[in-house]
Each structure stands twice: as structure tokens, then as C-alpha cells.
Design goal:
The protein is an alpha/beta fold. Among the domains are: 124 residues, Phosphorylase Kinase, domain 1 (2-Layer Sandwich), CATH 3.30.200.20; 191 residues, Transferase(Phosphotransferase), domain 1, CATH 1.10.510.10; 200 residues, no CATH class; 147 residues, Rossmann fold; 54 residues, no CATH class; 110 residues; 150 residues. Helices cover 29% and strands 17% of the residues. The chain is built from 39 helices and 55 strands. It has a 27-stranded mixed β-sheet. The protein has a six-stranded mixed β-sheet with strand order 1-5-6-4-3-2, sandwiched between helices. Helix 37 links the parallel strand 32 and strand 33. Helix 6 packs antiparallel against helix 9. It is globular. One of its GO terms (molecular function) is ADP binding. It holds the Pfam family Pkinase. It comes from Lolium multiflorum (Italian ryegrass).
Length: 1582
């Protein structure tokens, strides 16, 4: 065969390969449209799959005229990509540059012409482009991911500018050219416009470059390019990530506004402590971005400076200070105590005997894999030496190493060749330097090399073996494959366990340190002397042998498609002459199909705007183009249900219905199955029409034929058995299929049958119909026909009928299950046989390939492999088991089923797995818990029959599969404990869930110890109860999850537990522990620990560095023994502590026992006293002994009843304290706060003056202060506020007695006076603080004050104000201005020169705001909202036209308004909402005639408006996207349905006189039934 590469040696050497065009044509299926993954100005990108399975992206350059210089563009991108190798730049795999000669027809003659074929081949990046995560709003990824992308792109650009011999300018950096791999690592691509740049000077170019919006001003105006060109583009990209496109373009000229919006948004998303840690990072990134987009090129930073600034963030995240060294040593005795001579006697010794301290007998091992876990005796020559460890001392006195390991994310760390290499490098250096030399060293090194090579090969093999398992499951209906599949799984699981063993050793070396003797001995005894090399080779040979057999059966070319023998093709002709129990569904669907339709009511129920086929006609507005196909007249109705429930049968009976046949011009039936190939389906649609043939292979030609067939016809299309591959390529396949259907007649329908809820939601334009099982009576009649072949019970054997009724109840109303059991029962009409079937599980009965369990198995087979593994585990639980989402998510993580995705926590990914299974109907929600349908449970037990088992009775014991991996023991089982002990022979168990209580007197003491000594591969243990946790639990190196659900007698945990470095979850909720092991900090993967009244969760904390700490919650109510305080003592990595329900007299010795002052990492402390008062409370005394360490930054006291704070609350003792909070501390009267930045005081009812709290010497450091519900607070010293030179945020609420001369705070930026909750019954007061406000830096002001009667604008000096919100001022009657000027001693200034947003709402007595709504007061106003001011009599409507920047105007709930003076609107307006706002009919429609920029129009409850002319929509409101007309009872006409047909989102309802439309009219984003007419239109994208 001809080589696919010109030079194969280049490929193996790592150089860029040169591909033949023929080869690229093959791997992209002739550059098929189905393979398109991107389309740009210079070329189309296709996905290609090479022969070895490697996926690449092939960018085929478009053939253009020579003057377009495509050759130069090709050479640019190819050569520049060859120059760079960097993890943040897309890797060039190869290229193609061929000139082909071919004979073509030209001018009526055949001539030979040359055609250039050029292509670039890149690594295929599964994450797609950044463009799909960037939108009008801020990026929806979490902050860590956003930062990772920002940093990666910056480093990639830095490499282009500074890391190459000659600088490369990209010149087209934008989100579409930033690609993401499956770990979300960003890579810069598309170097078509790039050029070499050997100098930092500026040059000019006449060549068009870049993309509008990402090009800097100097290029736009002068065509100048320099490295600062790319820096500008980078800044735009960062702002789009952090703020969204809309906020960037809205505020491009006001960087401070972008900065504020970004900080506000991310503070909201990263609530509380997370924000306090991430705020500096967010601030740094947005400041970098804003410098990058500076219009002055000279003021932009260089890319190297940007990376330097970002590196400072990383240093702050990652740096850990190592103070001192550990003085404790681990003592290991090996015959002698001297390190120099410890292994001297190994020279010439071939036999090493290792003691088995557990007393285990080698003869008890039943599996070679047990060598992984036990010390082994080897007899080879003559001499022996015992290697044993006698002393176990914690070498980690402090936690710094373990903090670093937690920070590096060991829970996510897989075994990789790099990690294995590090482990063996450590082993060689340790053994060579300490123990062995000479000839023995060479023998040992050879052994290590052989073992390392074997492990690396095993690791390389495993991914292919998992893929082979997946392919084998698709052919498991073949006998030979079904026989080998369990063997393959078993071998793969063995290999996985072996590699996981090495992971434990890697963690042990990291935890205990390279200098420690313990890991060296363990590795030498158990690995080097444990025949690991032979074990690895044996496993490899076993995998090779099984895979060879399977590949010889044809699995190498298996496509993941359903075999026709398993999934026969369906047609529109019913197999059943009669349909049972579907009369209601049949009648409803026929009514929907056949009733007359008007375009406004074609979809009376829900129509989803996000469906792939939108019912509306797309329109462009404000540079926006819809990507939805325009299929206005085609309604899509999905029918959803599990396999075998009768979806296809129902659809067949619909197609054969006479009324349906007469109603439609054409009826198409297409069996889709799991291959949604647009070309195939289009062909089938064409050929289903009489006399039509689809002879061409060209999709465009096929779609033209179909378009002509269906145009101006009323059609019904049935797409039977659709799976979720219809959603591939982000739904583009579905859109391509629907493209020719846009010209069908109104009333055309599409029926889709599917098992997948996700498919129904995405493609449906109506509420889907869900088919459940048949009701019992109907199902019984159907079952009788299946079993007795006659529905007449009189002729049946009564005994058989009784048994049959019992069987029916197990079938969940499934018609296909009834047919399956009917066939099986008819084989033998004897009661004994039928009773056997009754007592059997459905999954154990042999079934044909098209019967119920094989049919349901299709749903399982279609799952992605990772979801298959997760769902298969559920087979170890009985039917009707109530699953908890979080529980399963943790178990799946512990089992190793969850694939890492960047920095996203595995628990979150696992929860997404669960949601996906729920979406696919594998789980059903019942009152907040989840169950599996009985038939699906039977199916999953079948697919897991060799891996999972449930012990229900004594007789089940003999049926346990020998290689079972997951086992549950039900509480109801009647079995003796000696038999339970024999479970230890199933040594491959990974999961043991025993609900049978093991803490009673009958339980032998050695039961759990025996299990822990033999079941060495356990990853998950769940017990109901147990006497104790034995020391042998330390053998379970793979253990990740340990749960005991009931109270147990033990009070402590064995020290050996701390050697379980993989342990992630320990849940002992009802166990009253008194202490934790001293080595608890060694559990570096621990994510959650719970015991009675005590909870510990691993949290990634960020402040100035990124570290893993524990967040601990202690509930001390009724804790007379102080166990919670005692447990705190051993949590060294304590980062946050919350103590709940401190009530009654707490013994001071318990508080002392917590030793909080020694917690070196404690940053946040919350102490919550019970709200139940106790006369014996000793709050002050307890707090005195809970003195935190000097590193504490955040303190919250809730319910504290003390009058003052303890003596340690002084600056010297709390030097790091930044933010104290006092909530419901009613007794507190005085204190002396240290130097702080944030202060919260809430419900401190006895506090009378802030002078009693804030230390005068430290008042200047305060930046943020919140004071709420302090009823007695009177004194807020105004002169002191002037001294608060750093105060930036102030919130005061519920303090009615505050009195001061004026609020003067020159540094204040954000001011909230009163409650932001809209509660008219609340007495929202802030004293007289609002009377006189002089805050020259204030940008945000919220005011809600009940006692306020008027606002005199001349008393406010707020010249920097940008947003003003006046709310719930119930007695406010007027806002008084003074000709737009504010008097100051030195002259006059404009009132609010920078105010862009004004909101006034719920001011019931306000009668006028005319003074405020003046152009001289509001020269920059963009947004005006006036809502629910019921006595507001007038607005200066004639002035609105003078607000040239106004974009949003909303008038709501002001029904007394008079508009006699006029209503004129500016042309800049984009959103107009008029809702119950007086009689405005005199100015409608004239006020709408100049609004070419208007995107959203809402008119609600506006009486007296009678008509809007039809031509207005198309001639004046040309940008309109969203229209709501709701309950306007007098409106008669809006121009008819055609007048508004181009508006994308429409809601018209409750307009009684508007007879030209059938209401409700719901279209686009307003179509959902869940859409509320009030308050949601603002969320519709414009």
C-alpha cells in the first residue's frame, strides 16, 4: 500500500509530516459536511480520524484567485506554526501542498487544468473554541477556569513575541481563534494573518488584517502594526471573558464602569469568603485588560509585563513558606540500628523473609494480585534476613508538606508514566545510596528497569482495553463476544488495581518524605521482592491474549451502531391490529395534527426558544443574526418513553388513521435509529414519495429535490427511534436536516419518537408526550392475549391465571415485557414451570434479541462509556432503592469512574454525570430521592451480572460470581456470621455495602478484621454498624470511601487509618468519637470527615495563596463531654471553623482543649450561640478560652450575650484580623476593635455609639462598614466619618435614632441607606443620614427611608454618582431641585454629570419628580425606571426626547399619571416598557415613529390605546426583536399577523378587542408556559 506520508521518518522524529491529499480525503470521508467543525475566511476545518484512531483537525484552504494571495497565507501559517512549540499554541501535525492535473470541461472542450490542494493538519482539540463560552454576558465558567484561560493565552502570546528567534505577531487574536483541549487548556490557533517581526518598532501595512472589535485604534486609523496590536486584542478577549461583549461595547469609553461591573459580577458569583480570596486576582486581571485596550499604544503594557503580573498571582497562590525542619525521626530496625550498617548484610544474600505482622497465612491467598498487598516470603538460596518495622512515628509534626500535596490535588492525580518514572528514580537512588552496592545493585536496577518498562506498557495498553470493552458491549449479543467480555473486564480491573497500588506508593513517598525509611522498606519488601515483574507481565499477556481473540472476531472495525438483528428497521405499517391503553394519547395527537390552525395559535402549548427548530422567522436586528432554521410552519411533537413502552406502535397507528391520511398531502416515515446521517435521512424522505429516486450523493442536490417535493404542501414527517446523536456538532446536523422544510404549508407536523428527554427538549417545539406503562386492568387484558392467545379467562387454568396475575405486577405495564414473558410462559403450561418463572428475576430468563431486556439494553449501550460504568454500579442495590445524588456522586469518584476536567472538582463532575443519567431517564425523581425503573433495574443487573451481586438470602451465597467486584448484603438476610466471614474469599471486591448490623454481641470479633486482612482491593466500605474499626484496616491501600451509618461503641480510630493515603470520605455521623489519630494530617486526599456533632470538609482556600484547608463544623448542643472541641485538636490544617449552638454553661476545659491559638492556618472563625437564652450562659468565659491564632482574618460572633469582648481582643493579639462581624449580640455595649478593614454590626440592640466599638487610633483603616438593626444607636460622629479616609462602602439599615450633622465621607464609593428588600411593612430607617450627603467619590447610592418626606437635591454633593436608586420611601412626597444647580461655597456645579442609571420605585406618596428629570441634572442618563409610585401625577414626558444617551425607559404601576404635556422619545432608545402607566393613548403610535434602535417593546395594561399601524413595525421599528402586548383591552389592530411576522420573540394575550389574531400569540423565547408575563422580558437577549 502506498505510504500516506511523503516522509515517514519525519513523522517518527517528531517533525511536521507532509500528508497526501488522497489520505486527507479518506480520513475526512471526502471532506464530508458531517465532518465540518469550523469555517473561516481562508478555509474550512474538518475532523479527520487516522487509521490508528488519532483524531486531527484538517484545515482545507479555499481555492481563491491568485490575486487573493492564498499561497502567501498558506506559507505564513505553515511556516510560523513550524517555528513554535508551546503548550498554549496549537500544534501543527502536518500539511499538504499538492498540485493536481485533471481533465475538466471548459468552453465546450475538455482541457487539462491544474488545481492546488493545500491543507494544514492540527492536533484535534475536543473543547472547541473559546467563542462558545464568550457571549453578551460574562463567561459562565468558574473563576479558576477563566483565570487559567487568561493566563494560558497570555503565555502563548508571550512565546510568540519573545520566545522565538524572530517575534511573531498573530494579528487576529479573538475567542474564535483560541481553542481548548479536554482539560480546558487554551491554545492559540489560526496563524493565517501572522507575520514575522524582528523589531519592536512600528510599521504600516495596506493588507486588511484582523477582526473588527479586536483591532487597535492605530491600525484602524493609520494601518500601523506593532506588538501592541496583539496586546490590544488580548485585552478585548480578557474583558469579553470577565464582563461579556455587551458590557464592553456599552462602556468602552468608561473603563471605570467596566471595572465596577466586573467586580460586582464576580463578587456576586464568588460569594463570601471565596470572593475575599479571589478579589485580588479578579482586580489584577481586569486592570491588565483595561491597560491593554488603552487607545494610546504607548500606555499599553508589553506581553512580558502582563505575564510577569500574572506570575505574581501564581506566586501568591502557590507559595508556601517552609519554616524550620522536622526534628522527629522515624526509627526502623533491621537487625541493627545504624543506618550505615543496616543493609550491609544484604551483600550476598538472596533470600529475604518479611514478617507478616497480621498473622496472615500465605496459603490463604487465592489470587496472584494479593502479592500487591502482603509481605511475601521468598526462598531462593540459603540465607535469610528479616526486614521489619517496629516503630511508627509521625514525621510530619507540622502540615506544610501535606498542605502542598493537598494543593497539588492528589485526589485527581492519575498514575502516569511521568509519575511512575519519578517513583522508580526515587527507588534507585534510595536503594543504591542506603542499602545495596556492587553486583546486587546491578541486579536490582535490572529488576527495577524491567518492572518500570512493564508498567509503562500496561499503562499504554489500558486505554485501548477500555475502548475494546466499549466496542465489545455493542456486540455482546454475539455468543463468542459475550463469553470473552467478562474475562476482558476482569483483566482490565486487575491491571487498574495494580496501577492503583503504585499510586499508593507514590503518595506514601510524598507524604513521608524521600528521606524516610518506611516507604523504602515497604517498596523493597512488597514490590521488589514480591514478583511484581512477573505479575505485570502475566497481566499484559492476559490482556494481549483476550484482545487478540476479540479482534479476530471483528471488533477492530466495530462501529458504535446498533446491529440490525438487535434493532430491526421499522415502518409505518402497524404490527399490531389493535392498540391497548393509548386511546387518550391517540385522540389527543390526532386532534393536534388535524385541527385547523392559525399561525398565532399553531402551538398553543409550550414552544421552546432554544429548540433547534424555532417556530419563528429569524430576523436581523442590531447587527444580530439568528442561527435558527426558519421553519415557521412545521411543528415538532416528541413522544418520549423507555424502550418497549409502545412509542413506535402509537406512531404507526397515527400514520394509518384515515383522518390523518386525508388531512396531509404527504406522510413520510423515517426510521432514524442511532445513525442520524443527514444525507441518508434526506434520501429516505425523497424515496418514500411515489416515483421519486435519490440517485445523487450530493447533499445540496438532495435537499433541493426534497425542498421541491414538500414546498407548498401540508406534510407529516415521523422520525421514529431518534437518539441523541441528532444533537451532535452542537445541533448543526438537526438544523441541516430541517433546512429544506421551511417552505411547507401551515399546519405541517413532525412526530419524533425517542427514549431521550434531552432530544425531546432540544428538537421539540411543543410539550412532549410521555408514555408510561399501561394501567393494570388494561395491561392484564393485554397480557392474557400474550400468554393464553385468547382474552377469554373462562378457558384458562385458574392456577395458571393466579400465577400470571402475580407475574404481571412485576412488568411495570410494559407491552414488550408482556410479549417477552408471554412467549416464555407459553413454552410450558405447567404450574410448576410458571412458579419458577415467577420466582426468577427477569434478567435471568433467556430472551430473544428483540425482546424486553435486549431492547432496554440498547439505552445502556448508547451511553458514553463513563456513564455506563456509573450506572452499572447501581446493580448492587435492590429494586426500589432510594438513591441520593450526592451519595452516588461520591461513590463514583471513589470507584475511579469520574474523568478529570481541568480544575473542576470531581464531585461536581460526578453530579453532572448523575444529571445526564437522570436526563436520559435512567433515574426517576420521587420526593427528592431517586429510583430506577424496575425494568431498567433488571436490565442493569443483566449487564453487570459478573461484577455486581446482592445477597438477599442464605441461598444466594452459592450464586456469587467468583470475580465479583461490588457486593451488597441486605439487612433482612438470615445468615450466620461465620458465613459472612467467608466473604473474604472474594478477594477482588472493590465495594462492600453491608446493611446487616455488625455491632451486636453475636458478631465475632474477627469478622471485620478478617475482611480487612483479605479484601485488600476494597475502595468503598459501607457498614450499618460495627464493634470497632480494626488496625488491619490499614491494609486497604485502595480505600477511598468509608461510611458507618449507625451509632457504634468505639470512641477512637486506629492509627493505621492514617496510612490510607487515598482515603477521600469518612462518614461516621452517629459515632461519638473522642479523639482523632495524631497522624490525621497524612490523609492528604481526604475531602470530607463526619462524626457525631463534627464535620470536616476539604476546601480550596484562596487569599494571597492557593491552599487546601479543612472547613470544620462543630455542633456542641447537648455535648456534655465536649467531644467536638476535643476533635478540633487534631485538625492541624484547620482553615475555617464554625461552632454552632453554643448553649448553656460550656465547661472552660472543653474550650481550652480545642487549642485554637495553635492552629497556624485558621483564617475564619464563626461562633454561634443558641438563640435560646440560658441563665447559666457563660459566654464571656467561653470566648476567653477560644482565643484564635494571630493569623485569624475573619471573625463572626452570632448571638453573643456578653457585654464586652474578651481581653485577647486587642491589636497585639489579632494583628491579621480584617473583618469582625457581630450579629444578634444584644448584650454587647462596648469594646475596642483592633486595626480592621471590614466591620459588620447587626442586631446589637444595646450599642449606643460607634465610638464604643471603633478604636480611635484605627478608625482610618476601615474600608467597609455595615450597621443594621441597632435600635439604640444614636451617635455616629460625623467628624469621624471625615477621618475615615479609606472608607469605601457603608450600609446602614434599621437604625431609627441615628442623628448627625451630615454624612461627609470623601472616599466613599458605595452607600446603602435602608433595606434593599421590598417590604412595605418594614420600618426601613437610617436616621437623618440622608438629609445632607457630601461624598464626592460616591458612584452608587441606594436610599430607602420611611421617615423621609422630601429630598432637597441642593444638599447632596454627589458629582461622581453613576447609579441612584430611591426605593420604599413611603412618606416621600417630592424631590426638589434648584434649576439644576447645587450651591457650594465656591460656586455652582452640575448636579449629577455622570449619572447613567436612575430608579425610583415603591414611593407611594411621591407626587412629582419633575425637578430631577431635567437635562441639566441628568446629562449622561442612559436608564430610567419609575415603578409603583401610585400617587405620581405627572412626568415631564416632553423632556425624554432631550436625553440623547437614553437607552432604557420603564414606567410601571403609576396609573394616575397624566401625559398632557406630551411624550417624546429619543432615537437612542433600545428598551421601552409601559405598564399600567396612565392614559398615554394620545401619544401612541406617534412616540414610536423615531425609534429605529428599539429592540424591546412592552405595552401592558395600557387602556385607551386602540391601534398601532402595521407599517410601523417594518418601517420604523426595524431593530425590534422582543414584543409584548398584554391586557390592553381597547386595542383593535396592530396590522395583522403578517405585520409582526419578522419579530423573533412575541407575546400577545388578554387583548379582548384584538380579533385579527387568535390569542395567546407566543413565539420564540416567550413561548414557554413557564414564562411569566411580568418581570421576565428583560432577560430576553436582544
Amino acid at each position: 500500500m502506498e505510504n500516506t506520508l511523503w516522509n515517514t521518518s519525519q513523522q517518527t522524529s517528531g517533525a511536521t509530516a507532509q500528508f497526501k491529499f488522497e489520505f486527507l480525503n479518506k480520513i475526512t470521508n471526502n471532506f464530508s459536511e458531517d465532518h465540518v467543525i469550523g469555517d473561516g475566511a481562508y478555509g474550512v476545518v474538518y475532523k479527520g480520524v487516522m487509521d490508528n484512531g488519532q483524531e486531527i483537525a484538517v484545515k482545507k484552504l479555499k481555492n481563491r484567485h491568485l490575486d487573493h494571495d492564498s499561497e502567501k497565507q498558506f506559507h505564513n501559517e505553515c511556516i510560523n506554526l513550524m517555528r513554535v512549540q508551546h503548550q498554549n499554541i496549537v500544534r501543527l501535525v502536518g500539511y499538504c501542498d499538492e498540485t493536481r492535473r485533471q481533465c475538466v470541461e471548459h468552453g465546450g472542450k475538455f482541457v487539462f487544468a491544474e488545481e492546488n490542494e493545500r491543507a494544514l493538519c492540527f492536533e484535534y482539540l475536543q473543547g472547541g473554541s473559546l467563542d462558545k463560552y464568550v457571549s453578551e454576558e460574562p463567561c459562565r465558567l468558574d473563576w479558576d477556569m477563566c483565570y487559567k484561560i487568561i493566563k494560558g493565552v497570555s503565555e502563548g502570546l508571550n512565546h510568540l513575541h519573545n520566545g522565538c528567534k524572530e517575534s511573531i505577531l498573530h494579528l487576529d487574536l479573538k475567542p474564535a481563534n483560541i481553542l481548548l483541549d479536554n482539560n480546558m487548556i487554551p491554545k492559540i490557533g489560526d496563524f493565517g494573518l501572522s507575520r514575522l517581526f524582528s523589531t519592536t518598532e512600528t510599521c504600516t501595512t495596506a493588507t486588511p488584517l484582523g477582526t473588527i472589535g479586536y483591532t487597535p485604534p492605530e491600525y484602524v486609523n493609520k494601518q500601523e502594526i506593532s506588538p501592541k496590536y496583539d496586546v490590544f486584542s488580548l485585552g478585548v478577549v480578557i474583558i469579553h471573558i470577565m464582563a461579556g461583549r455587551k458590557h464592553y461595547y456599552d462602556h468602552v469609553d468608561t473603563p471605570s464602569k467596566i471595572n465596577e461591573l466586573v467586580l460586582k459580577n464576580w463578587e456576586k458569583r464568588l460569594q463570601g469568603t471565596m470572593w475575599s480570596h479571589a478579589s485580588q486576582e479578579v482586580m489584577t486581571c481586569i486592570e491588565i485588560a483595561l491597560r491593554c485596550v488603552n487607545s494610546d499604544r504607548q500606555k499599553r503594557p508589553t506581553i512580558s509585563k502582563i505575564v510577569e503580573d500574572l506570575n505574581r498571582i501564581d506566586i501568591a497562590r502557590l507559595s508556601l513558606t517552609y519554616e524550620g525542619t522536622n526534628s522527629q525521626k522515624r526509627e526502623a530496625l533491621v537487625g541493627v540500628h545504624d543506618n550505615a550498617t543496616r543493609f550491609a548484610s544484604l551483600e550476598g544474600i538472596d533470600n529475604i523473609v518479611v514478617s507478616d505482622e497480621d498473622g496472615g497465612n500465605e496459603n490463604q491467598m487465592h489470587d496472584p494480585m494479593d502479592f500487591l498487598h502482603k509481605s511475601i516470603t521468598r526462598d531462593t538460596v540459603s540465607t535469610s534476613i528479616y526486614v521489619t518495622q517496629t516503630i511508627e512515628v509521625d514525621i510530619l509534626d507540622d502540615c506544610r508538606r501535606n498542605l502542598r500535596l493537598r494543593m497539588e490535588g492528589n485526589i485527581y492525580t492519575p498514575v502516569t508514566m511521568h509519575n511512575i518514572g519519578n517513583l522508580f528514580h526515587w527507588a534507585r537512588s534510595n536503594f543504591s545510596s542506603q542499602w545495596i552496592s556492587g553486583t546486587k545493585e546491578k541486579v536490582l536496577n535490572d529488576e527495577l528497569f524491567s518492572l518500570e518498562s512493564g508498567l509503562q506498557r500496561l499503562m499504554e495498553t489500558l486505554p485501548a482495553m477500555y475502548d475494546l470493552i466499549d466496542r465489545a458491549e455493542w456486540r455482546s449479543h454475539k455468543h463468542g463476544v459475550a463469553k470473552l467480555l467478562p474475562n476482558l473486564k476482569d483483566a482490565v480491573y486487575d491491571a487498574d488495581d495494580l496501577l492503583d497500588e503504585f499510586r499508593w506508593y507514590m503518595l506514601k513517598v510524598e507524604v513521608e518524605g524521600n528521606g524516610s525509611q518506611s516507604p523504602s522498606m515497604d517498596f523493597f519488601n512488597n514490590v521488589i521482592q514480591g514478583s511484581f515483574t512477573k505479575l505485570v507481565k502475566g497481566l499484559q499477556d492476559r490482556l494481549d491474549n483476550i484482545s487478540t481473540h476479540l479482534l479476530n472476531m471483528g471488533l477492530h472495525d466495530v462501529t458504535t451502531r446498533f446491529d440490525k438483528s438487535v434493532r430491526p428497521e421499522t415502518s409505518s405499517f402497524p404490527y399490531e391490529t389493535r392498540i391497548f391503553g393509548r386511546d387518550m394519547e391517540l385522540k389527543y395527537i390526532i386532534e393536534v395534527l388535524c385541527k385547523p390552525k392559525n399561525s398565532s395559535s399553531a402551538n398553543p402549548k409550550r414552544q421552546k426558544g432554544n429548540s433547534a427548530v424555532d417556530v419563528s422567522t429569524s430576523t436581523s436586528a442590531s447587527n444580530q443574526a439568528s442561527t435558527e432554521p426558519s421553519t415557521t410552519n412545521l411543528t415538532v411533537l416528541p413522544i418520549v418513553g423507555i424502550g418497549g413502552v409502545g412509542k413506535t406502535t402509537l406512531a404507526q397507528h397515527i400514520c394509518s388513521n384515515a383522518e390523518v391520511n386525508s388531512h396531509f398531502d404527504l406522510i413520510f416515515w423515517i426510521c432514524v435509529s442511532d445513525d442520524f446521517d443527514v444525507k441518508r435521512l434526506t434520501k429516505e424522505a425523497i424515496e418514500s414519495c411515489p416515483g421519486k429516486q435519490a440517485t445523487t450523493e450530493n447533499l445540496n442536490s438532495l435537499q433541493k429535490i426534497l425542498f421541491n417535493i414538500v414546498s407548498s404542501k401540508k406534510i407529516l414527517i415521523v422520525l421514529d427511534d431518534m437518539w441523541d446523536d441528532v444533537l451532535k456538532e452542537n445541533g448543526r446536523c438537526w438544523k441541516r436536516f430541517c433546512a429544506p422544510l421551511k417552505n411547507v404549508l401551515q399546519g405541517s407536523m413532525m412526530l419524533v419518537t425517542t427514549r431521550c428527554q434531552k432530544v425531546a427538549d432540544k428538537v421539540g417545539t411543543r410539550d412532549h408526550i410521555t408514555l408510561e406503562g399501561l394501567k393494570y386492568d388494561i395491561f392484564w387484558n393485554f397480557f392474557k392475549l400474550c400468554v393464553f392467545e385468547s382474552g377469554n379467562s373462562n378457558n384458562n387454568d385458574p392456577e395458571l391465571e393466579r400465577i400470571a396475575r402475580s407475574i404481571v405486577r412485576k412488568l411495570e405495564g410494559s407491552p414488550l415485557a408482556a410479549k417477552t414473558l408471554g412467549r416464555i410462559l407459553r413454552m410450558n403450561l405447567q404450574a410448576e414451570y410458571w412458579n419458577t418463572i415467577l420466582d426468577s428475576e427477569l434478567w435471568t430468563l433467556r430472551q430473544d434479541e428483540t425482546e424486553i431486556l435486549p431492547a432496554l439494553r440498547l439505552s445502556y449501550m448508547y451511553l458514553p462509556f463513563h456513564l455506563k460504568r456509573c450506572f452499572a454500579l447501581c446493580a448492587m442495590y435492590p429494586k426500589d432503592w432510594k438513591f441520593q445524588k450526592c451519595f452516588l456522586a461520591e461513590i463514583w469518584v471513589a470507584e475511579g469512574f469520574v474523568e478529570p476536567q481541568g480544575d473542576i472538582p470531581l464531585q461536581d463532575i460526578s453530579c453532572e454525570y448523575f444529571d445526564e443519567l437522570l436526563y436520559r431517564s435512567f433515574f426517576q425523581e420521587v420526593f427528592g430521592e431517586y429510583v430506577i425503573h424496575d425494568l431498567l433495574h433488571d436490565m442493569v443487573q443483566k449487564v453487570s451480572e459478573f461484577d455486581c451481586f446482592i445477597l438477599k438470602s442464605r441461598s444466594d451465597f452459592k450464586s456469587i460470581p467468583p470475580n465479583v467486584r461490588h457486593l451488597s448484603v441486605l439487612s433482612s438476610i438470615d445468615i450466620d456470621y461465620s458465613t459472612l466471614l467467608s466473604l473474604r474469599r472474594f478477594t477482588k471486591l472493590r465495594t462492600l455495602h453491608c446493611d446487616k448490623p455488625l455491632a451486636n454481641q453475636k458478631t465475632p470479633a474477627n469478622l471485620i478484621a478478617g475482611w480487612c486482612s483479605q479484601l485488600l482491593r476494597l475502595r468503598v466500605i459501607i457498614f450499618s454498624s460495627t464493634h470497632e474499626l480494626p488496625s488491619s484496616i490499614g491494609n486497604l491501600k485502595h480505600l477511598r470511601y468509608l461510611q458507618i451509618s449507625s451509632a457504634c461503641p468505639f470512641k477512637s480510630l486506629p492509627t493505621e487509618l492514617c496510612s490510607l493515603y487515598n482515603l477521600q470520605v469518612v462518614c461516621l455521623q452517629k459515632c461519638k468519637l473522642e479523639s482523632l489519630p495524631t497522624n490525621f494530617s497524612k490523609l492528604i486526599c481526604l475531602q470530607r470527615f463526619e462524626s457525631h456533632g463534627f464535620g470536616c470538609v476539604s476546601v480550596l482556600r484562596r487569599f494571597q495563596k492557593e491552599e487546601f484547608y479543612y472547613e470544620v463544623h462543630v455542633d456542641v448542643v447537648n455535648d456534655e463531654q465536649g467531644l467536638g472541641f476535643r476533635l478540633i485538636k487534631n485538625i492541624n490544617q484547620l482553615g475555617e471553623l464554625v461552632i454552632h449552638n453554643i448553649v448553656g454553661p460550656v465547661r472552660k476545659e472543653h474550650a481550652v482543649e480545642a487549642q485554637l491559638h495553635n492552629k497556624k492556618y485558621l483564617e475564619k472563625l464563626t461562633l454561634k450561640w443558641s438563640l435560646l437564652k440560658n441563665p447559666e450562659d457563660n459566654a464571656i468565659e467561653v470566648l476567653q478560652f477560644l482565643q484564635p491564632p494571630a493569623c485569624l482574618k475573619f471573625l463572626l460572633l452570632s448571638g453573643y450575650q456578653g457585654v464586652s469582648l474578651p481581653s485577647w481582643f486587642q491589636p497585639l493579639n489579632c494583628p491579621s484580623l480584617m473583618s469582625p462581624s457581630f450579629i444578634s449580640s444584644n448584650g454587647l455595649k462596648s469594646s475596642s476593635l483592633p486595626r480592621i478593614t471590614d466591620l459588620i454590626i447587626d442586631w446589637c440592640r444595646n450599642l449606643s455609639s460607634l465610638e464604643h466599638i471603633i478604636h480611635p487610633a484605627y478608625i482610618s483603616t476601615l474600608k467597609k462598614m455595615t450597621i443594621k438593626n441597632c435600635k439604640k444607636l444614636v451617635s455616629v460622629p460625623a467628624e469621624r466619618f471625615g477621618g475615615l479616609c479609606c472608607l469605601e462602602e457603608l450600609e446602614v439599615q434599621g437604625c431609627p435614632n441615628i442623628y448627625c450633622q451630615g454624612l461627609v465621607a470623601p472616599s466613599l464609593k458605595r452607600l446603602v441607606l435602608g433595606s434593599k428588600e421590598i417590604d412595605l411593612s418594614r420600618n426601613s430607617t437610617c436616621g437623618n443620614l440622608a438629609d445632607y450627603v457630601d461624598c464626592c467619590s460616591l458612584t452608587y447610592f441606594f436610599l430607602s427611608c420611611n421617615h423621609l418626606t422630601s429630598i432637597q437635591l441642593q444638599k447632596w454633593n454627589l458629582r461622581a454618582l453613576e447609579e441612584l436608586h430611591i426605593s420604599v420611601c413611603q412618606f416621600l412626597t417630592s424631590i426638589i431641585g434648584h434649576s439644576g444647580q447645587v450651591n457650594r461655597g465656591t460656586g455652582c456645579v452640575r448636579a449629577f454629570p455622570f449619572l447613567t442609571s436612575l430608579t425610583i420605585d415603591w414611593c407611594n406618596n411621591l407626587s412629582t419628580i419633575d425637578d430631577l428629570l431635567a437635562e441639566e441634572y441628568l446629562p449622561a442618563i442612559k436608564r430610567i425606571h419609575v415603578k409603583y409610585c401610585y400617587k405620581l401625577a405627572s412626568l415631564p414626558g416632553e423632556r425624554f426626547g432631550s436625553f440623547s444617551s437614553l437607552k432604557e425607559l420603564e414606567i410601571t404601576g403609576c396609573n394616575r399619571l397624566s401625559w398632557r404635556r406630551g411624550f417624546v422619545l429619543p432615537s437612542s432608545l433600545q428598551i421601552l416598557s409601559l405598564d399600567n402607566s396612565g392614559d398615554i393613548s394620545a401619544w401612541v403610535p406617534s412616540c414610536l415613529e423615531n425609534l429605529a434602535s428599539l429592540v424591546t417593546l412592552i405595552i401592558r395594561e395600557c387602556q385607551h390605546i386602540t391601534f398601532i399601524p402595521g407599517n410601523l413595525w417594518s418601517t420604523n421599528l426595524t431593530s425590534l426583536v422582543n414584543l409584548i402586548i398584554w391586557h390592553c383591552e381597547d386595542i383593535v389592530s396592530i396590522g395583522g399577523e403578517n405585520a409582526i411576522s419578522e419579530i423573533k420573540n412575541v407575546l400577545i394575550d388578554g387583548c379582548q378587542k384584538l380579533e385579527e389574531l387568535e390569542q395567546p400569540v407566543k413565539r420564540g423565547s416567550y413561548a414557554s408556559n413557564s414564562y411569566r408575563a411580568h418581570g421576565e422580558e428583560e432577560n430576553v437577549s436582544s
